[in-house]
Amino acid sequence: MDVTHEKAMRSRGNVSLAVLQDRARFIRTETVRLSRIAGAGHYSSTFSCAEILSALYYAQMRIEPSDPDWPDRDRFVMSKGHAAIGLHPVLADLGYFDPSDLDTYTRFGSNFGDHPDMKKVRGIDFSSGSLGHGLSVGVGMALAGRLQGRDFRTYVMLGDGEISEGQIWEAAASASHFRLGNLVILLDRNGLSIDGHTEDIMAIEPVTDRFASFGWQVQRVDGHDLGQVMQAFDALPRSATGTPRAIVFDTIKGRGVRRIKMSLDWHVGNLVGADYDDVMAELAAGLKPDTPEALQ
Ligand SMILES: Cc1ncc(C[n+]2csc(CCOP(=O)(O)OP(=O)(O)O)c2C)c(N)n1
Ligand SMILES: [Mg+2]
């Protein structure tokens, strides 16, 4: 490992919760800004995982933005690819590309689509959008890492509606069969799929027991409490062989904005004019780093 990469790794791990809270706010405000440029965006799906993404990218992942192909970097598969609108600004903020590249978000000629593209965007490890495939990809990445003798982790973020896809469970079975201790599921348990409550459409509870019965070790925490989120990440071992790990994050779809919170009308939407200004003001007022309870 060269000096730059060592420095990149050392600089992580001591980020304060206030900074992570602020970056979660940044993820939400950027989602609102980029959605207006695009003409539509997945607000609520991104707001539910803002704290998870913030902790993952600003404090947890072993990455080096100046070298996105670094073979020993941790991998991230955003299997619920429609939430990429919250990931792209994080990659820009960390230096993978110039933040001004986002100013033409999804417009003709832009590298950014509504879903992440590994061939066009530095820092994206897998192109996703068609739900249900990400965990299988993660299994392949984790197996490849072990075969190459590398100790990187592979994180896969899944939606709670997404896990109704049968392929998720084939992948879950293979991960424990191959003892992929380097594979981590991040389940965004926000209660809603695109058009209803998961428990009405296709119940997933008791989801912790379900993953455990497939041979996974599971933690369940509040996905908006950054202290709990960080503790759950910190408890993960860095070991290529062992029991695969899942973290079920209990979240609120649309958390951070009253009109969007748990509303089925906001899976995709477009805030413009006074509505845009109101929502930006609400985010600015409610997400001060020292008053997380002011969120809503
Ligand atoms: C294979 C497939 N079927 C349907 C869709 C359309 N779709 C996009 S988002 C979504 C709901 C996903 O719900 P969930 O996994 O709970 O994610 P959330 O937005 O709640 O985080 C659906 C059905 C898709 N992208 N891929
Ligand atoms: Mg959901």
Explain what you see:
The chain is globular and about 55 Å long. Helix 2 packs across helix 4 and helix 4 crosses helix 10. The longest helix is centred in the first third of the chain and has 22 residues. A 5-stranded parallel beta sheet has the order 1-2-3-5-4, sandwiched between helices. The protein has a single domain, classed as Rossmann fold. The chain is built from 11 helices and 5 strands, in the order H-H-H-H-E-H-H-E-H-E-H-H-E-H-E-H. The chain is of the alpha/beta class and 296 residues long. Helices cover 40% and strands 10% of the residues. Magnesium ion (MG) binds next to loops.
List the helices and strands and how they pair.
Layout: H1 3-10, H2 17-38, H3 43-47, H4 50-60, E1 75-78, H5 84-94, H6 134-147, E2 154-159, H7 166-177, E3 183-189, H8 198-201, H9 207-213, E4 217-222, H10 226-234, E5 245-250, H11 273-286
Parallel strand pairs: 1-2, 2-3, 3-5, 4-5
Tag the structure with descriptive keywords:
Rossmann fold; alpha/beta; 40% helix; 296 residues; 5-stranded parallel sheet; binds thiamine diphosphate
What's the quick description here?
With 296 residues, the protein is α/β, with parallel strands linked by helices. The chain is built from eleven helices and five strands; from the N terminus they run H-H-H-H-E-H-H-E-H-E-H-H-E-H-E-H. Helix 10 (226-234) links the parallel strand 4 (217-222) and strand 5.
